C-alpha cells in the first residue's frame, strides 16, 4: 500500500538507485575527458563501424494509454463490520490497516507496521479483541462504460459496502451508488451521483487470441493510474471461483487494488475485467485472470436494465462423460454432458429429456462438458428457445425447449463427478439389499449396505447408502436383478456397465468397469 512506499527501507533503496546513477554519469564523464576532439572521434567511429540494423522492439502503448486512462477510476468503499481478509481477491478489499483489523488504537507505529506487514493483529496465535461497530476501507478499480457515469467493477470490491466513492484520473472524487451486483460472475455496476459527461471506453466486439498484447490499467496498492502490459496467456480458464468460470489468463502485472479494472486490447477496447490473481506470495507472479468481454457485456447489460441478472434454466442435473461412461453408452468420444436426472416439471423433462441422455450441442454448437453447458444456458435469458442435440441409445436426437428462469438460490447444476466409474455387486466388493427393506433408503432400487474398502466398487467411489436405480438402462429392485443385469452386460462383451445411483439428494451415473479376472464373494 501507499504507506509502504515511504518506508526507510524504500527510501534507502531509492537513494541507492540515485547514487548508482550518479556514479554512472561520473564514469561516462571521465571517459569523455580522454577525447581531445570528441566530434572528430565520433565521426571516425561511424566511418569505420558497419551500419547497424535498427532493433525491433515491442510496440509503444503510449497512444492507447493516453486515450483510455481517463476512463479508469479508483474505487474506494466504506465497509462495515468485515472480518480480516474479506473482500478483495486480487486488488480491492484492502482496508486501511492493510487487511489487518482489531489493532489497538495506541499501538506504536513500528508495531503497527510490523503487524500490517505480516497480517497478525495481536501477534501470532493471540486472540483478537472483541470488536464493536467498526468500518474499514476497501479499494479497487473500475472504468466508465457510458458518458453519463455508469462504472463497471468487481462484486467483491463493493460487497458489504455502505458508501462508495470513485477517484478519476484527473483527481476528482465522485460519490457513486451500486446499481446491481452479480456474485456468480463477480461483477458489479455503479453510477456516479454527480451529473456530467465522463470519458468512457467500450467493450471489444471480438475475442483476443492467445499471444495478443493486452494492457491492464488500475489502482494497485492504492497508487492509482498504473499501467502494465503483457499478453493473453490462455483462454477458458476454470479456477473454481464460480459456476460460470471462463477466464482470460494474462501475464500483465496485476496486484491488490487492480480488481475491477479493465484489460484493453491495442485498439483501446475492453477485452476483460481483472478479477483474480494466482499468487503464493500475495504479489504479482505473472498469472492473472480477467472476466472476458463476452461474459461481462451481457451481465452488465442485465444489471443496467434490471439491477440483477436473470439466467436461463433447463432443470437438469449433469455430470462429465468419462471414457468408461462413453464406452458404456456407445459414444465415439468422452464429450458432452450426461443427464443424471431431469427435474420433474422442468423445461428439459417437459421437452422429453431423460436421465441417461447425453447433451452434446446447444443450437448446433458442440458442448465439451458440463461447465460449458452451464455457461451456455446461463448466458441465455428466460423465455429463449434452445435446440439441444442429445444422444440416446446411440442415436442422435434434437430437442427444442423453452428456458425457465434460474431460481435465485441455485446455479445451473453441473455436479461434476470426476471420479465416476467402477464395478459393483457380486465380484465388486458390494453387499446389496432392496431399498424398501432399509429404512431411509426409499422405495425404489437396491441399496448398498456394505463396501469392501479394497474392492473395485470402493475404488470407483461407491459408498454405503448409495442406491442403485438402474443398470444399463434397466430399473432394478433387488440384488438378483443387479446380478442378472451385470451378467447380461458381460455376455454382451461390454467392458463396463452404466449404473444410475442416488447418493443423498443427488443422482449420478457411474460406469463400472468389469475386472479382468472374475472375483469371488
Let me know the largest β-sheet: 6 strands, antiparallel, barrel
Number of strands: 26
Overall pLDDT score: 76
Report the CATH topology name of the largest domain: Thrombin, subunit H
Q: Architecture of the largest domain, according to CATH?
A: Beta Barrel
Q: Point out poorly predicted stretches.
A: 1-39, 83-107, 117-130, 409-424
Q: Tell me the strand order in the biggest sheet.
A: 1-2-3-6-5-4
Number of helices: 11
What is the helix content?
A: 10-25%
State the end-to-end CA separation.
66 Å
Shape verdict = elongated
What integer value in Å does the Rg equal? 30 Å
Q: What is the count of distinct domains?
A: 4
Structural class: alpha+beta
Reading off the top of the CATH hierarchy, the class of the largest domain is best stated as Mainly Beta
Strand content: 25-35%
Describe the structure.
- With 521 residues, the protein is of the alpha+beta class.
- It folds into four domains: 1-31; 63-120 and 134-309, Thrombin, subunit H; 312-405, Pdz3 Domain (Roll), CATH 2.30.42.10; 430-513, Roll (Pdz3 Domain).
- The protein contains eleven helices and 26 strands.
- It has helices at residues 8-32, 38-48, 62-68, 109-118, 155-158, 293-306, 323-329, 347-351, 370-378, 456-459, 479-491, and strands spanning 72-80, 135-144, 150-153, 161-167, 173-182, 187-192, 213-218, 226-237, 247-250, 262-264, 270-277, 288-292, 312-313, 316-320, 337-342, 358-362, 365-366, 385-392, 395-402, 404-405, 430-434, 446-451, 467-471, 474-475, 496-503, 506-513.
- A six-stranded antiparallel β-barrel has the order 1-2-3-6-5-4. A six-stranded antiparallel β-barrel has the order 7-8-9-12-11-10. Strands 14, 15, 16, 17, 18 and 19 form a six-stranded antiparallel β-sheet that branches.
- Strand 4 and strand 5 (173-182) form a beta hairpin.
Amino acid at each position: 500500500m501507499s504507506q509502504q512506499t515511504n518506508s526507510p527501507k524504500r527510501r534507502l533503496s531509492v537513494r541507492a538507485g540515485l547514487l548508482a546513477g550518479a556514479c554512472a554519469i561520473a564514469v561516462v564523464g571521465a571517459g569523455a575527458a580522454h577525447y581531445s576532439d570528441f566530434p572528430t572521434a565520433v565521426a571516425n567511429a561511424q566511418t569505420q563501424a558497419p551500419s547497424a540494423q535498427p532493433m525491433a522492439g515491442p510496440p509503444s502503448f503510449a497512444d492507447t494509454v493516453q486515450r483510455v486512462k481517463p476512463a479508469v477510476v479508483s474505487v474506494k468503499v466504506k465497509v462495515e463490520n468485515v472480518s480480516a481478509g474479506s473482500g478483495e481477491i486480487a486488488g480491492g478489499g484492502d482496508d486501511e490497516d492493510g487487511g489487518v483489523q482489531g489493532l489497538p488504537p495506541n499501538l506504536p507505529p513500528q508495531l503497527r507496521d510490523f503487524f500490517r506487514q505480516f497480517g497478525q493483529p495481536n501477534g501470532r496465535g493471540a486472540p483478537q479483541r472483541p470488536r464493536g461497530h467498526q468500518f474499514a476501507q476497501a479499494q479497487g478499480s473500475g472504468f466508465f462504460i457510458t458518458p453519463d457515469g455508469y462504472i463497471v467493477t468487481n462484486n467483491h470490491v463493493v460487497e458489504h459496502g455502505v458508501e462508495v466513492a470513485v477517484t478519476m484520473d484527473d483527481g476528482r472524487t465522485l460519490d457513486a451508488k451500486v446499481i446491481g451486483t452479480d456474485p456468480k460472475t463477480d461483477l458489479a455496476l455503479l453510477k456516479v451521483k454527480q451529473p456530467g459527461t465522463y470519458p468512457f471506453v467500450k467493450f471489444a466486439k471480438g475475442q483476443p487470441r492467445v499471444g495478443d498484447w493486452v494492457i491492464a490499467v488500475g489502482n494497485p496498492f492504492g497508487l492509482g493510474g498504473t499501467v502494465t502490459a503483457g499478453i493473453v496467456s490462455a483462454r477458458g480458464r476454470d479456477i473454481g471461483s464460480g459456476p460460470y468460470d471462463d477466464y482470460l489468463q494474462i501475464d500483465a502485472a496485476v496486484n491488490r487494488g487492480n480488481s475491477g479494472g479493465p484489460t484493453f486490447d491495442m485498439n483501446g477496447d475492453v477485452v476483460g475485467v481483472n478479477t483474480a490473481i494466482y499468487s503464493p506470495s500475495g504479489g504479482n507472479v505473472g498469472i492473472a485472470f480477467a472476466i472476458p468481454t463476452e461474459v461481462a457485456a451481457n451481465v452488465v447489460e442485465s444489471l443496467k436494465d434490471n439491477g440483477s441478472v436473470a439466467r436461463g434454466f433447463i432443470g437438469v442435473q449433469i455430470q462429465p462423460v468419462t471414457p468408461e461412461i462413453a464406452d458404456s453408452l456407445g459414444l465415439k468420444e468422452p464429450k458432452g454432458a450426461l443427464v443424471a436426472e431431469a427435474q420433474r416439471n422442468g423445461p428439459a423433462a417437459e421437452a422429453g429429456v431423460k436421465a441417461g441422455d447425453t447433451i452434446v450441442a446447444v443450437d448446433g454448437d458442440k458442448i465439451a462438458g458440463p461447465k460449458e453447458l452451464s455457461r451456455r444456458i446461463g448466458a441465455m435469458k428466460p423465455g429463449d428457445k434452445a435446440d439441444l442435440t442429445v444422444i440416446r441409445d446411440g442415436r442422435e436426437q434434437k430437442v427444442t425447449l423453452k428456458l425457465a428462469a434460474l431460481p435465485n438460490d441455485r446455479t445451473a447444476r453441473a455436479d461434476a463427478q470426476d471420479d465416476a466409474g467402477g464395478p459393483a455387486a457380486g465380484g465388486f466388493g458390494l453387499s446389496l439389499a432392496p431399498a424398501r427393506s432399509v429404512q431411509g433408503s426409499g422405495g425404489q432400487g437396491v441399496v448398498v449396505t456394505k463396501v469392501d474398502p479394497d474392492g473395485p466398487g470402493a475404488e470407483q467411489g461407491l459408498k454405503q447408502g448409495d442406491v442403485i436405480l438402474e443398470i444399463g438402462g434397466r430399473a432394478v429392485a433387488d440384488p438378483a436383478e443387479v446380478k442378472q443385469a451385470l451378467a447380461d452386460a458381460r455376455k454382451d462383451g461390454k467392458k463396463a456397465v452404466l449404473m444410475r445411483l442416488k447418493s443423498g439428494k443427488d443422482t449420478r451415473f457411474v460406469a463400472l468397469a468389469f475386472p479382468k479376472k472374475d472375483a469371488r464373494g
